[in-house]
User: Fold this.
Amino acid sequence: MIQLQNIEKVYRTDTVETLAVNGINLNVAKGEFLSIMGPSGCGKSTLLNIMGLLDEPSSGSVSIDGQDTSRFKDRQLAHFRNEKLGFIFQSYHLINDLQVLDNVELPLLYRNASSTERRRLSEEALAKVGLSNRMKHFPSQLSGGQRQRVAIARAIVGRPQIILADEPTGNLDSAMGNEIMDILMSLNEKEGTTIVMVTHDEHMAGKTHRLVRLFDGSQVQ
Amino acid sequence: MLKNYFKIALAVLKRRKFFTFISLFGISFTLTILMVTTALIDKVLSPAYPDYRRDRSLYISKASLLNTKEGWYNGSSVSFRFLNDYVAKMKTPEKVGIFTFSSSANAYVNNKKLVIEYKYTNAPFWEIAEFDFLEGKPYNEQQVQQAARVAVITDRTATKYFGRAEGVTGKYIELDNVNYRVSGVVKGIPRSNRNFYGEIYLPYSVSKNFNGMAGTTGVRDLSVQDRFIGKYGAVLLARSEADVPAMRAEYAQLLKKVFKPQTEYDKLYIHAESIVEGLARNIFGNNEETGIVRMFTFAALLVFLFLLLPTINLVNINITRIMERSSEIGVRKAFGASSRTLVYQFLIENIILTLLGGLIGLVLSSIAIYMFNQADILPDLNLALNLKVLVFGLLLCLVFGFLSGVYPAWRMSRMNVVYALKAK
Assistant:
């Protein structure tokens, strides 16, 4: 589903050159639930951002669903992300000015979907994460676990084939973290969604199909 | 999509109430001042009661005699002789109205003094100015020739003097101890219209120092000052707008013919010009040029500078707001918004903000104009928000919104997603 070939990412400032990701080759199969672990600053998030086409590799290529993405222009990238990818972030990144329902609807705004269609799909997604009774709330009125579930609803509302999750349980206590993990696992099992998750938590990583460990930008396992 | 933009625009406005207040205040206040000013200018410059034919009229109000060698001059209004003996006999004008600029006289009602501004006119004055006669009629040529003591008064004067605005035709009004029979009552006009304003109108032939001046032929025997300088002004009405240049040309010829440079004065200026030219010459011009280009340049510059302030303010505020919203920008990009879509969103938000400011400005303008009219600062001058001013105002809002949104939106759309998501 995702093929990374010889991915390198170098950050340059005036004086220093930092190699964040160094020669990574990785294949993620369709329907796989993969976790990426490693100490802080090892390049996990950078790798995930490259997979999600949010960041460009300095060299190497990213293919998703059989398509080489290196020559995509801004609009193609936007379209591709919208259709194929869903993101979950550690700090949720909900838009605080919008109600839960409007937050979930966001990816559908960039498609040709009618407002009734958007509403129906958003309500469905919220039902899946168990938040049907919080649609008219604002993010600030929700707990951390609830916010992350809204973020999951937003990530799945467009039915993407791939979900990229950057420490989705990082800000939550273990009970809430388990809840989030259960939702992700059921998505993977029932809907066949491919999931790549960056985590610090061995216990969470243990629940996934495969574990990749990074150290100083290189794959060690 | 638009509904979503609208929601977020309102939410952003609500979130930072102080910024919103400053933005909206800037926009609406600027717009209010602009709209009230244009309403005022529009009222003064565009054809209005009773002077509806400004497009084919030229006005004379000032005469200046110069001695350029010694650098002194003599100037005032224009002599009756010059206007009546020469200007009124021109071929191209359909009619020439001659009048004094108003001066005041005393009347007494129940032993209380009333100051009334009177204006002397000739008979054609009444054919050029399209006054609304509430009753009666103007005095005619014959009455002027016979120096009949008749008067046209305004409704305001009638109310002040007789205690009522109707049924006063045929009654007498005493002014500086002379009785005049009221021949008609007209609706009054604002003082700002100097050419036509008066509270009582009298035939020029009854003026105290007139003494049979009309039709004087011995002009050449008089001093050069007396030949050209006096208390009168005139309005020349052409047959059509197309005739105006011919009328100007004939007038220029006439001036050359009647005045030859002499030792005492070597230059004479008596301009016959449109209202706008007259205004421009008064403020920006001199005897040689009208200053009309300078006036419009100045006005445009003023409007531009005036608009620049709130625009810069808005650009600043917008950039601050973008930084606050970088997480939102990152999320939108991650979920499929292209840079172009984001620019579009931000421009729309900004236009919503400025239109809101425009709406408030409109309400403020209406209130300001209402208060201006109520306060009766200039009697009989009723300002109105006309359609031209309104459309102009709305257009300005859009330009505002666009200009102050483009740069911030462009910066926003170029933001790197990862960076945008990290910035918190």
